[in-house]
């Protein structure tokens, strides 16, 4: 069916002003100042007055098959449901394993990605986890990236964290080289997602890989870069050397009171320091375990990440920290899509109709389309997951 959104404020994420947008099936057909339909075919017209039309959000780190729990087996986090994403404007998710790659497996991760795709979401994932040697679903990193459609990279590999296996320069270089080659051979990006802990070495290991090999810093995608001011400073230097960084929107009151910066604040701070907006992203870390450690690395609390935090951080960036709307949108749409090599995160003719209609005043999603299918209308799900 043809769908025409009329007189809407369009952000592609670049601001284009008032436009009409026409799509059918999963494809955007036209973007013009005024589109009229004269057809005996069935079509729907959506009044976009008072709304902003933006690309569907790309959440670059979600533990959608559930995460391991640092408080024992009972604390393993649950799986994500479809509406945990769609109700908050998210149309693309990238899953990963983290601390637990024993009771949580790649078999389940890829199966969950396929299930989310069956329900109507765009879903991808990484091979590997925090630990080395890298565990994979098939024979190797190359095999997984080349032959499994859903697998687009490696991660999240842990550095500067007491829960990781403390990788060497040589080990991380080998992983990045294998992922990069597999990406070249399969038309993927082969990005290496890096979990960065609170260790004082920060991103030094990534710089050493780039200095001692032909692997560029852009092959790595470090996340959790808003853990503290020192790490954020290291992240700014990483960007100025050619890398990109990601801020985690799920957090705890304890962590914020003990030095962590809100993702929106970190985004605004980096922009103020002159970092190119295309080098900055935000992700939810949804359904991850959020262990709270004191200075002695003793567990003192435990919470669970939420995909909804991505929307909250976007709203906070614009409404509280005065980040321009187009730059805030970039951080959760076109930027993560480009870094991961996905043909998502932008609105243009011929692209997939992954769209979110936002209330212009509150920036709350009113309607959400994924590949042209309407998933949410009037803040309520039209499509629910199999068990929700």
From TrEMBL:
Cofactor note: Binds 2 Zn(2+) ions per subunit.
Active site residues according to the UniProt entry: 285
Amino-acid positions noted as binding Zn(2+) 1 in the UniProt annotation, renumbered to this chain: 63, 285
Cofactor: Zn(2+)
GO MF annotations, alphabetized: beta-aspartyl-peptidase activity; hydrolase activity, acting on carbon-nitrogen (but not peptide) bonds; metal ion binding; metallopeptidase activity
Protein family (similarity comment): Belongs to the peptidase M38 family.
Protein name, entry field: Isoaspartyl dipeptidase
This protein's encoding gene: iadA
């Amino acid at each position: 069916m043809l769908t025409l959104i009329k007189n809407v404020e369009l952000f592609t994420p670049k601001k284009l002003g008032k436009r009409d947008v026409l799509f059918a099936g999963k494809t955007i057909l036209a973007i013009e100042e005024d589109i009229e339909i004269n057809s005996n075919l069935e079509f729907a017209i959506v009044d976009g007055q008072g709304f902003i039309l933006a690309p569907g959000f790309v959440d670059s780190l979600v533990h959608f098959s559930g995460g391991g729990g640092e408080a024992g087996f009972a604390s393993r986090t649950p799986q994500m449901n479809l509406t945990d994403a769609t109700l908050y404007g998210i149309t693309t998710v990238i899953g990963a394993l983290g601390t637990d790659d024993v009771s949580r497996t790649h078999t389940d991760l890829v199966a969950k990605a396929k299930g989310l795709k069956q329900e109507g979401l765009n879903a991808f994932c990484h091979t590997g986890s925090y630990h080395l040697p890298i565990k994979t679903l098939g024979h190797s990193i190359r095999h997984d990236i080349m032959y499994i459609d859903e697998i687009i990279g490696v991660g999240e590999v842990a550095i500067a964290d007491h829960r990781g296996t403390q990788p060497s320069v040589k080990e991380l270089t080998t992983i990045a080289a294998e992922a990069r080659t597999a990406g070249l051979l399969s038309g993927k990006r082969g990005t290496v997602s890096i979990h960065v802990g609170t260790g004082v070495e920060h991103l030094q290991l990534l710089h050493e890989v780039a200095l001692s090999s032909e692997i560029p810093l852009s092959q790595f995608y470090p996340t959790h870069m808003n853990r503290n001011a020192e790490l954020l400073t290291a992240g700014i230097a990483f960007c100025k050397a050619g890398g990109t960084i990601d801020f985690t929107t799920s957090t705890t009151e304890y962590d914020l009171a003990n030095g962590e910066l809100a993702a929106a604040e970190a985004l605004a701070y980096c922009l103020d320091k002159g970092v190119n907006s295309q080098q900055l992203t935000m992700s939810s870390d949804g359904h991850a375990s959020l262990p709270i450690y004191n200075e002695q690395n003793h567990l003192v609390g435990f919470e669970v990440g939420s995909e909804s935090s991505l929307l909250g951080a976007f709203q906070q960036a614009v409404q509280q920290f005065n980040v321009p709307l187009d730059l805030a949108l970039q951080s959760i749409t076109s930027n993560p899509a480009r870094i991961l090599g996905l043909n998502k995160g932008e609105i243009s003719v011929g692209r997939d109709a992954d769209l979110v209609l936002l209330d212009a005043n509150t920036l709350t999603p009113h309607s959400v389309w994924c590949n042209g299918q309407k998933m949410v209308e009037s803040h309520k799900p039209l499509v629910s997951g199999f068990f929700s």
